């Protein structure tokens, strides 16, 4: 890539880093403790919600996580309508179905209880409810919505996406298999409720994949250029929690303390990347996920060490700082420290039986993957090194 284009990208990213703190951020109110979902009825009462749109999955309903609060709502005279047909990787048709039900039941508040797909889908349902004349595809990009959503409570049942505290929603266009983010501070939930009791039934492979997604959020946010002190401190807080709790949660799902800490890790990872962005792991991963239908966390786990190795010296210093924060000796060289952090990620993958390669990946798709990844990342993501098709192909060669 020509130096002048890279220079333009860096100027754009620098200007964005100055502009981002000026956006109309709102502080998502955090409630974090086992059993904290019980606070929902009181929040709704305080916010004046008369009819609640409950977005969730059939599995969450079946496990009875919502029984207590739904009974209480009935007693309080708050109506609710349950929407449980959200698919993984939320599609435009799922959003349209949801917004039609939201409107037909005259809802004025949203409770999203589920993984990133449920929370992301609900965000865009809320956006469509307040912007009825704007299509989902018109919301693609940054700052397209600019209108307050209905009262929004996010309750994650996986510890990974951080969607409960980010301004982003990732949507899949089912016709083109294109995954794209919608970014707007309006999409920040009003409340995030982290309740470890709701994640204890998550199977080990999903604990692993979602946990590695959170690790990717924190790592990419930390190593990005122009990442603020605040974002870096959220990233380190998250990585420290992941390092102490991910394997515990993976090995014993009923370990409520580890589950609660992983939810907090995911939350702080979200706080880190919502202002500092992610990078090529996500850009390439979204492209692969869109084309092959692979779970997001799995693509993150596989791609993270490969992309970090490819950055080489460009990310060495930041990675060495992370390694020290996780307990490595500061007396080691920067190179050694950064290698140790990458090796740590690989060890996590091995310990949680995450493969090193994507066997379904086909060389014939390299061009399309690179095209989509570069379109997502450049110039928006302030990655340690700006890549072109060549570097994306080299990473894919390591993954195939
Ligand atoms: Fe992610």
Write the topology of this structure.
Elements: H1 3-19, E1 29-32, H2 40-47, E2 51-55, H3 58-62, H4 67-76, E3 79-83, H5 92-104, E4 109-114, H6 116-130, E5 141-142, E6 151-156, E7 168-173, E8 178-183, E9 191-194, H7 204-223, H8 229-251, H9 256-276, H10 280-292, H11 296-311, H12 313-325, H13 334-351, H14 366-377, H15 389-399
Parallel strand pairs: 1-9, 2-3, 2-4, 4-6, 5-8, 6-9
Antiparallel strand pairs: 7-8
Helix pairs in contact: 5-6, 7-8, 7-9, 7-11, 8-9, 10-11, 10-14, 11-13, 11-15, 12-13, 14-15
Fe (ii) ion binds at residues 213, 216-217, 282, 296, 300.
Task: Describe this entry's structure for a reader.
The chain has 400 residues and is of the alpha/beta class. The protein folds into two domains: 23-199, Rossmann fold, CATH 3.40.50.1970; 202-399, Dehydroquinate synthase-like, alpha domain, CATH 1.20.1090.10. Helices cover 54% and strands 11% of the residues. It contains 15 helices and nine strands. It has helices spanning 3-19, 40-47, 58-62, 67-76, 92-104, 116-130, 204-223, 229-251, 256-276, 280-292, 296-311, 313-325, 334-351, 366-377, 389-399; strands at residues 29-32, 51-55, 79-83, 109-114, 141-142, 151-156, 168-173, 178-183, 191-194. The chain has a six-stranded parallel sheet, sandwiched between helices. Strands 5-8-7 form a three-stranded mixed sheet. The chain starts with a helix and ends with a helix. The relative contact order is 0.11. The mean pLDDT is 96. Bound molecules: fe (ii) ion. Fe (ii) ion is lined by residues 213, 216-217, 282, 296, 300.
């Amino acid at each position: 890539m020509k130096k002048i284009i890279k220079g333009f990208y860096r100027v754009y990213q620098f200007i964005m880093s100055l502009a981002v703190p000026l956006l109309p951020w709102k502080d998502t109110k955090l409630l974090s403790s086992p059993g904290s979902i019980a606070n929902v009825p009181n929040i709704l009462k305080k916010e004046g919600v008369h009819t609640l749109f409950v977005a969730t999955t059939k599995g969450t309903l079946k496990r009875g996580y919502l029984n207590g609060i739904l009974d209480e709502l009935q007693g309080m005279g708050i109506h609710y309508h349950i929407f449980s047909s959200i698919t993984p990787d939320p599609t435009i048709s799922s959003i349209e179905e949801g917004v039609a039900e939201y409107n037909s039941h005259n809802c004025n508040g949203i409770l999203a209880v589920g993984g990133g797909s449920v929370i992301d889908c609900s965000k865009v349902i809320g956006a469509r409810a307040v912007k009825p004349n704007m299509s989902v595809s018109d919301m693609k990009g940054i700052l397209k919505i600019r209108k307050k959503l209905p009262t929004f409570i996010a309750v994650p049942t996986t510890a990974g996406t951080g969607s409960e505290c980010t301004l982003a929603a990732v949507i899949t266009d089912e016709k083109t298999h294109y995954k794209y983010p919608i970014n707007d501070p309006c999409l920040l939930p009003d409340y995030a409720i982290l309740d470890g009791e709701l994640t204890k039934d998550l199977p080990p492979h999903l604990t692993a994949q979602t946990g590695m997604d959170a690790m990717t959020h924190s790592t990419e946010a930390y190593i990005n250029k122009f990442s603020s002190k605040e974002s870096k401190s959220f990233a380190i807080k998250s990585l420290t929690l992941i390092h102490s709790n991910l394997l515990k949660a993976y090995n014993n799902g009923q370990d409520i303390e580890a589950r609660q800490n992983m939810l907090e890790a995911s939350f702080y990872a979200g706080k880190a990347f919502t202002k500092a962005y992610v990078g090529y792991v996500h850009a390439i991963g979204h492209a692969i996920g869109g084309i092959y239908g692979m779970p997001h966390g799995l693509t993150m786990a596989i791609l993270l060490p490969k992309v970090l190795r490819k950055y080489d010296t460009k990310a060495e210093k930041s990675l060495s700082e992370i390694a020290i924060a996780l307990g490595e000796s500061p007396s080691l060289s920067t190179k050694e420290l950064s290698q140790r952090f990458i090796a740590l990620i690989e060890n996590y993958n091995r310990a949680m039986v995450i493969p090193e390669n994507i066997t379904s990946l086909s060389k014939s798709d390299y061009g399309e993957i690179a095209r989509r990844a570069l379109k997502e990342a450049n110039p928006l993501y302030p990655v340690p090194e700006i890549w072109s098709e060549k570097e994306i192909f080299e990473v894919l060669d390591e993954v195939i």
